[in-house]
Sequence to fold (294 residues):
Amino acid sequence: MKLAHFSDIHVTHWPLSGGFAIKRMAAIASYSLMGRGKHFSESDVRISKLLTDVDAQNVDHALCTGDLTGVSTEAEFSRVAELFGDRRNQPAKYTCIPGNHDRYVSGATGLFERHFATLCEGGGFPFKKVIAPGVTLIAIDVTRPTSVIDSSGLCGPAQRKTLEGWLTDPSLEDQFVILALHYGLLRAEGQRDKRNHGLRDDLEVMELIDRSDVSLDLVLHGHMHRPYVVNTKKRVVINAGSATDLHVKGAGFNVYDIDPKAHRVRISRRAWSIESGRYEDDPKSPLVRELTTR
Fold:
């Protein structure tokens, strides 16, 4: 089967376009002084072309691993929902999970679910769904509102317990199993992320997924805007990076050609071309490779 994986598309409006929140006020510095406004200038145009290009790849399923918005305002959610259009009514073809920018402030609680619950099994986490014969997707929500100086995530003991039960279920032994979350488990060089940026219980999650009685082939995420492939002790972890960040060379999305029975995957890359104004094949991307996942 073919799976498209994109992330961190960030419909980005002026940070104070939503309700008042101190964190949104602080985001003005990032937007105006640190370049975020320029990085995601006219991101809605690229998102529209991204979704069209994903459909053109004739994939069996498409996965977005979060950060649909910039600072989780109603206007941003309404716009990205408009761009997805009828795709939001096709859970057999599309899956979206939230990123930390979609839970940016406590006042945004429920906005992601209002617009995208249809693509994440009604909005409850964790959830699992069969996305193709022999391929099971498990999704967890590790996002939460945080302070101005903290953008970390947390899986938590309840989700980890459910995850343990699912990943050790004998019925998944012959399945190609994918775990989707927003935060990465490791950075590109293989080290842990910073405490105020990464997953707080990353060690517990990695200890779980690396167990010998666990059935798991790929861990897919976003959060960090430059794409890469890395490994825990036993698992392949792929960061799709941002599909729309103009500051990232090769910003785009991955397409995985998966052989469920052989537990093999071939990665190809579609990258945004400023010259042509569209997404194109990027055969020279360092992500392009073929892997055995178990």
Observations:
- The chain has a mean pLDDT of 93.
